[in-house]
Amino acid sequence: DADVTQTPRNRITKTGKRIMLECSQTKGHDRMYWYRQDPGLGLRLIYYSFDVKDINKGEISDGYSVSRQAQAKFSLSLESAIPNQTALYFCATSDPKTGGTDTQYFGPGTRLTVL
Amino acid sequence: AQTVTQSQPEMSVQEAETVTLSCTYDTSENNYYLFWYKQPPSRQMILVIRQEAYKQQNATENRFSVNFQKAAKSFSLKISDSQLGDTAMYFCAFMKHGNNDMRFGAGTRLTVKP
Q: Which residue in A16, B46, B56, B60 has a CA-CA distance of 20 to 30 Å to B86?
């Protein structure tokens, strides 16, 4: 389903360029996350946000920044892209009030290539 | 820090057969959650099943079930009556209660053969 959307779905850019990846959700969840996926490494958390005024660094936040513009929108920025940031990026949302386990639901991913 | 290990990089199974994917994790916590996610070629991450550590009963979702062994820190996924659409990468994930930094294993690539 399209509860969590990411734009763009694919992006090729050059070293040194500023890139913004956007995530929107219609699930009404308070919590949002950004992950990157590299081959053989699974997913790793970059940043997460529990509400508009709460932003937290994840396991691999260096080289990235985020903005929580509204409950439904969470953007990831690469201020000066470098080739080792080439990866698949996922946005996710969760809400501990639903189901109790705070399960995370993922968007379709953005494939970013930095040349 | 919590780590999640999936020791089988690739597996295959014949259609209609049963397959078990392994996952072990390392933690000193007592209250946590475990998940299996599926990533088909479309690359969408899809929740397959979840387990709360405080529950002794193994979670089941249709053809998918887990064998949760808390003392052994093991969380395997059993897929019964495998279907071609089950072909995907499967990721095991761990999340401590109250901490949303979910940790993923490296994944197991499952191929269901006709």
A: B56
Q: Long-range contacts made by residues B63-66, C-beta under 8 angstroms, separation at least 24?
A: B64/B36, B66/B34, B66/B36
For chain A, say whether B104 makes contact (Cβ under 8 Å): yes
pLDDT digits (tens, 9 = 90+) for B10-52: 999 999 999 999 999 999 989 999 999 999 988 889 999 999 9
Question: What residues in B contact A100, CB-CB < 8 Å?
Answer: 52
Q: How far apart are CA A49 and CA A87, in angstroms?
A: 21
Do the Cβ atoms of B106 and A40 come within 8 Å? yes
* Partner-chain residue, chosen from A42, A50, A59, that has the shortest CB–CB distance to B101: A59
φ, ψ for residue A54, nearest 5 deg = -125, 110
Which pLDDT tens digit goes with each residue over A19-56? Answer: 999 999 998 999 999 999 998 778 999 999 999 999 99
**Per-residue b or e along B12-24, where b marks 16 or more CB atoms closer than 10 Å to that residue's CB:** ebeeeeebebbbb
